[in-house]
Amino acid sequence: MTVAIVSAAVVGYLLGSIPFGLLLTRLGGYGDIRQIGSGNIGATNVLRTGAKGIAAATLALDLLKGTAAVLIGWKWGEAAALAAAVAVILGHMFPVWLGFRGGKAVATALGVLIVIAWPVALGAFVLWFAIAVIFHYSSLAALVAALAAAAAAGFVVDAERAVVIAAIAALVILRHHENIRRLIAGTESRISLRKG
Fold this sequence. Notes:
The protein is mainly α. It has one domain. The protein is built from ten helices and no strands. α1 packs antiparallel against α4, α5 (78-93) runs antiparallel to α6 and α5 (78-93) runs parallel beside α9 (159-175). The longest helix has 23 residues, at 52-74. The chain starts with a helix and ends in an 11-residue tail after the last helix.
């Protein structure tokens, strides 16, 4: 069992550490995404390049790596799947290839939730989308969705999954510490979800 859990965690970390935002923006001719906007490798910062198609692809791939990590882990059992769930988040946030400076794992966390608690994933996505549309702050939407997911998990899934979801939500919130300061100061960048 220990070998299975460690193996799932390693696979999860390696999947999570694939920097799709960085790879896709380079392939698209936009250079190093870390030199643009917030310097983040996630879909929100990719969106700031104006390449909405690349941003959408980044979002989808970051989400899918979260889903894939948990599904692979599940082949070794639930404990391994939950280990992979946390590891894929850590991989995205702290990828060894980028000096442990990665993204905030919002899309990857959603991908994880789709597998381990799909009702929580659905609720979190709807809440994120509503907040993003109303207030135009991706970070605020992510923070609210993470808090809501952690709160709802205890009523929807078993204790083990609820603890993992709460841990992931805490990681996502902690990675938004700079955004929280900017939100309080009124200097946080807004996003546009309109087509074009």
